[in-house]
Specification:
With 177 residues, the chain is mainly beta. It has a single domain (16-176), classed as Porin. The two termini are 25 Å apart. The chain has 3 helices and 9 strands; from the N terminus they run H-E-E-E-E-E-E-H-E-E-H-E. 15% of the residues lie in helices and 61% in strands. The protein has helices at residues 2-15, 110-114, 152-158; strands at residues 17-33, 36-39, 49-57, 62-71, 79-90, 96-108, 115-128, 134-147, 162-176. The protein has an 8-stranded antiparallel barrel with strand order 1-3-4-5-6-7-8-9.
């Protein structure tokens, strides 16, 4: 009997969640010092990554989620874990909604050794027809991280803090459970 009660409790939660599988079509790492932001040496916009996630909307337009992004580069990988809050923004078109995400970004892989966790945000558009469980989402993501190494010499000479960003354009397919 206890198993059925637990199943009845978790079934509605699972039925209102969605699975996310996406592809980062372009990833560019940048450094910012002062007011100028420049591409990080050695990164190329054509770097690809694949992402897997789970998202649950609690009150219709506000939700929570988790996503893991795996870098497909052969070397110098930049994998991330991302725990976030999400919001849907209604648009005047019936099947299109805005999507905003903000949360905690954890670098993994080679990047986990060089950067401390930081914050990240994403903004995009989501299209989904009403009675079809599949949707499509395009979004821009920006992870803000700080280097593990101390750049005290840089700050001493310039008086500026050094910031690191990972920017990506992501195309994601969603499956509503």
């Amino acid at each position: 009997m206890k198993k059925y009660i637990i199943l009845l409790f978790f079934a509605p939660i699972m039925l209102s969640a969605q699975i996310r599988v996406g592809l980062d079509l372009g990833r560019v790492a940048t450094l910012k010092a002062g007011g100028e932001e420049i591409p990080y040496p050695g990164t190329k916009p054509e770097n690809l990554a694949i992402s897997f996630g789970y998202e649950k909307y609690l009150i219709g337009i506000v939700g929570i989620g988790a996503e893991y992004t795996h870098d497909l580069s052969d070397e110098d990988t930049f994998n991330t874990g991302f725990l976030y809050g999400a919001a849907r923004i209604p648009f005047p078109f019936p099947f299109i909604k805005g999507a905003v995400r903000y949360g905690y970004s954890m670098p993994m892989g080679d990047a986990g050794e060089r950067y401390d966790p930081g914050m990240a945000f994403g903004i995009g558009l989501r299209a989904k027809l009403p009675f079809i469980p599949l949707g499509l989402e395009a979004q821009f993501m920006r992870h803000t991280l700080s280097p593990v190494e101390s750049f005290d010499d840089f700050k001493q000479y310039t008086g500026e803090e050094l910031e690191f960003f990972m920017n990506s354009i992501n195309l994601t397919a969603t499956l509503k459970l």
